[in-house]
Amino acid sequence: MSLATARMVPMANAIRALSMDAVQSANSGHPGMPMGMADVATVLWSEYLKHDPAVPDWADRDRFVLSAGHGSMLIYSLLHLTGYAAPTMEDIRNFRQIGSPCAGHPENFLLDGVEATTGPLGQGLAMGVGMAMAERHLNATFGDELVDHRTWVIAGDGCLMEGINHEAIGLAGHLKLGRMTVLWDDNNITIDGTTDLSTSEDIKARYEATGWHVVSCDGHDFDDIRRAIDEAIADDRPSLIACKTVIGKGSPNKQGTSATHGAPLGDDEIAAAREVLGWESAPFEIPEDVVSDWRGSTDRGVQARADWRNRLEQHGDRDEFLRRMAGDLPESFSLDGYIQSLIDEPQKVATRKASEMALAEINANLPDTIGGSADLTGSNNTKAGGIGPFTADDYSGRYVYYGIREFGMSAAMNGMALHGGVIPYGGTFLVFTDYCRAAIRLSALQQIRTVYVMTHDSIGLGEDGPTHQPIEHVQSLRMMPNLLVMRPADTVETAECWDIALRQKDRPTVLALTRQGLPQVRTEMAGENCSARGAYRVKSANADRKVILIATGSEVSLALECAARLEADGIGADVVSMVCTQLFDEQDDAYRADILPDVAPEQLLRVSIEAGTTFGWDRYTMTHGLRIGIDRFGASAPAGDLFEKFGLTADAIVPQIMNKLNG
Amino acid sequence: MSLATARMVPMANAIRALSMDAVQSANSGHPGMPMGMADVATVLWSEYLKHDPAVPDWADRDRFVLSAGHGSMLIYSLLHLTGYAAPTMEDIRNFRQIGSPCAGHPENFLLDGVEATTGPLGQGLAMGVGMAMAERHLNATFGDELVDHRTWVIAGDGCLMEGINHEAIGLAGHLKLGRMTVLWDDNNITIDGTTDLSTSEDIKARYEATGWHVVSCDGHDFDDIRRAIDEAIADDRPSLIACKTVIGKGSPNKQGTSATHGAPLGDDEIAAAREVLGWESAPFEIPEDVVSDWRGSTDRGVQARADWRNRLEQHGDRDEFLRRMAGDLPESFSLDGYIQSLIDEPQKVATRKASEMALAEINANLPDTIGGSADLTGSNNTKAGGIGPFTADDYSGRYVYYGIREFGMSAAMNGMALHGGVIPYGGTFLVFTDYCRAAIRLSALQQIRTVYVMTHDSIGLGEDGPTHQPIEHVQSLRMMPNLLVMRPADTVETAECWDIALRQKDRPTVLALTRQGLPQVRTEMAGENCSARGAYRVKSANADRKVILIATGSEVSLALECAARLEADGIGADVVSMVCTQLFDEQDDAYRADILPDVAPEQLLRVSIEAGTTFGWDRYTMTHGLRIGIDRFGASAPAGDLFEKFGLTADAIVPQIMNKLNG
């Protein structure tokens, strides 16, 4: 039921006109890509994409990701033309202006129908892989009746050149995600000029080598585009469609050059393009028949959604499916009993092991989780609770062997979280947050529940040395907006942190966990998730309070040791476990003042102890407090020797406190 | 002049024995890789590698990088056996112990002959690409007589799976770096198990698609290894040699499994391996004839170095070549005159543009620089001073079109800096430090001069929105050890920062530069590089001093505006430009106390102003100071609207200061 080419052409030109005009009006933006891919997008959205603009959160809709996010006017045009409630034409007029949902790059939290925030290149495609994984997993869980959709990605040369592309397509190829299709805007142009300035790669051969099906088409020939998409659908591998396009297509003097990539075309050139395209409408006006053709194209999706709704209502798993897609935990889910058992029977284990113990409880009782590790399963302790591998042969599995692909893993987890219905977590060493930091930032910006299980969180990992020892990492992640960074001290806090992380529907969590064993510091205070306060008193001063020791993770037990020595000398010392600075900062004034009273250091000295940078700890110690930490790179040696070398022992710390008190 | 197999076998087994024994003694480490690659390494080092152990810094030596750095015992064994001054056998005995140069992963700053710090996977190979680029550039500059060597990399499956591999080999293939060879330890094993757990890729086909020559060999057959290396040398493309090996080769019960990857074999298994290998020496003892064969293998290199030395002494460019390899700037090099001219003629430009202006001076007068950008040349303003492209056809060029490969670019720059003879700089948007942060960390850890030109450094970039707007980046980089993070305020400071960066032989620099135009704040104080102090007073209080405004980059002019308003109300205000916190922290107490006197806020209020996170600014404002910044993600709008939205205007700031003063 394809429309005749004569009716398709103006549908595509509507995208071109809106893109030219919006960029011109904003005097900023990227017209080249939407104009170049307008024909491909028109075929995809009007004939293939399964969606219902009236119900943008329909669970079984196809997912569409504009990985080349700078071409944002493409998706804004498509959403508007197909009849989504937003963006309105007024929003499009205000492209890139304050308050408009039509931001410079598409933001998932501003517009329904924008499935992912894109712009940081390569990540959209990699999130698409995660969406396709979630789709297959939910299909294996709930069946074709409820879950049976595709993932479509539009990517540019930049997305394909980024390193994450290699990781993402390696994972997708290995997992045979045949319901994923990448439409590559093969226009031979990057910002700096033609692609041959910087690459000589045979992209199609590379994709084939990575387990992908590859097909090419003329990106300006509707029939050829249809043929290529049909071939992609027919193949059971993930597909790359190389769409040969002309960037800025329709701009007579600039098309095919990098001049159209990231700047307005200019009024004269837009006038000339209107000539060439035969587009006679005023800026931001679309002829009624074109609007009508675009709106009519969604009939398929509307019907499909109605059919699906009927199937859902009669489905035995209806409530469970809806619960999972809503992102709610089962009402029965609770770790309280488990945490009580930990308090009752103290034990000395590494927090990575404590995380494994918590996961055994969680995975057995919460079917939503999909775990994994970037080839450090035994070190990150991420496989627990009897979950089996997620493989091309068995998508019902809940454990992903991500391979040595930290960034790809993180982006895939973001894609899963965006898709919904699953709660992804994955592990690597904390120091390798540097490899996936750009994806962690997108977890935070997109307001999604991705859980990072980051082990080996300090010099306490020992012999692997400075390349593997985080120094600045925990602190530097704490300043990322909307991210919870948690560094628990023992089994109890680790379980509490997991409980908190799972209940964050709109923000991600980084768990920083030790390699080395830690004594249990929490042997009381059951019945309340103390970590949820961000910081709390693990021990109150016995003698007259002179000191507050503020520590995290492995250093909480060290702080307790210091406190014991101080108390023995008649110096009262609180010990505060600062599990999560962000959550502490969110507490009310009274609570914060109770834990950290605003008193001059002569009366009450605050001391921070963390086996990482001291930069920024002034925030909690106050200026004249004492900051114990490590402000250089680590070294290779057994952990005990390193804690001694870097002065993270009671023997080294207590005298400094005494000096300060007496100073 | 190959030795007979009967003499090669014990040479290789010496590596195996040392690796088994050192890991066992440390009770920690990775025996599998050195044992598996012992035969390949023996052929390479004894018959091909051009080196002279007595002169490890010989400029024309081949570069060898152990990208799979966890197999560090391989390089320690090779250095010891071929007669480098270090490691001694005592050092090897103390593998992974405190103070031993035989750290868990190879560290370039601990041992001559370790060309790069490796361990973070994929980066060794990518640094090898940079070394090969530097070699070709210096060859084009100084000719075959002085520069004519190869780059060899040993890489594992992890290095090949990491995203950076794609970027690195894409660059190397495009640039036709035919003197680079990667020996892939093709053992089908990763930490989690066999590689088919996580990948189905045809690696050889992928490399071929990326412009590489690929050859395979039996990694345990000396003749076959020689054949493959000869083929690699003969081909003018970069080569991948797939060395089919058995991980842990020689361990009868564990070889070929992930059990040998990262754990000691155990005493019993080591005894069994000694049987199998016919190795009768005690731990840490090598038979004299084996030592003799290893030492004899370096005769080629010793002779080559003597010949080279003769050529150098007679070479017209001798002094210049030695200067460049020593990393010294020409004595005549100075930006003083240029900076004076800036002070004389104030102008309003973006600091990215100011950087371009400085580079025009630098590149014209300092032949050492090799610039580039990750496909943002026109945005980063990195091409200046008349330098031409570095291409496969012309390696004398000094500008690299890195493509959309931020991480690969950064690692390549590290490789160039490690190679010596060149000073690499390269640009992308500051927010994309998240893509290359792991390489920035290796710049710092390796103590090398890599200069990162990071533009678009705040919400001041405007319409591109939150994905492109740094918030936490500047501050989070400041806490990385041994890294200079500089945020200059105008043309003068930008030139000063460039001068400082170029003179850091042992640490990298990140320049954070604006997209938007900035008024010139420095119109006096010529003759001294004020930025070298890290922070200095741009303006002293006129009225009675009550406030110190501490600002960086684009906010220095804003601080001056605030100060003018305060002074108009009779409130004296200093304005301090905090160009580089690290350099300021290194000043003596007297200087720091002069700039930021330790006085109670009631007497002297400190206010920080930076268009980024306020987290950590307590360090300079003191607890009861005022911190103006942005603690959430940005937004898409014109820059002026955003500064207003986020309260970074004098109208918004001055009342807060007044409140605080009156509070």
From TrEMBL, chains A, B:
Thiamine diphosphate binds at H70, G119, P120, L121, G158, N187, H261, F432. Substrate binds at H30, H261, R352, S379, H456, D464, H468, R515. Binds 1 thiamine pyrophosphate per subunit. During the reaction, the substrate forms a covalent intermediate with the cofactor. Binds 1 Mg(2+) ion per subunit. Can also utilize other divalent metal cations, such as Ca(2+), Mn(2+) and Co(2+). SMART domains: Transket_pyr. The active site is at E406. The keyword ATP-binding does not apply. GO terms for biological process: pentose-phosphate shunt, non-oxidative branch. Its cofactor is thiamine diphosphate; Mg(2+); Co(2+); Ca(2+). GO terms for cellular component: cytosol. Its EC number is 2.2.1.1. Residues 349-520 form the Transketolase-like pyrimidine-binding domain. Mg(2+) binds at D157, N187, I189. Gene3D superfamilies: 3.40.50.920, 3.40.50.970. Keywords: Magnesium, Metal-binding, Thiamine pyrophosphate, Transferase. It catalyses: D-sedoheptulose 7-phosphate + D-glyceraldehyde 3-phosphate = aldehydo-D-ribose 5-phosphate + D-xylulose 5-phosphate. The record marks H30, H261 as: Important for catalytic activity. Pfam families: Transket_pyr (PF02779), Transketolase_C_1 (PF22613), Transketolase_N (PF00456). GO terms for molecular function: metal ion binding; transketolase activity. Homodimer. NCBIfam families: tktlase_bact. PANTHER family: TRANSKETOLASE (PTHR43522), TRANSKETOLASE 1-RELATED (PTHR43522:SF2). Belongs to the transketolase family. This is Transketolase.
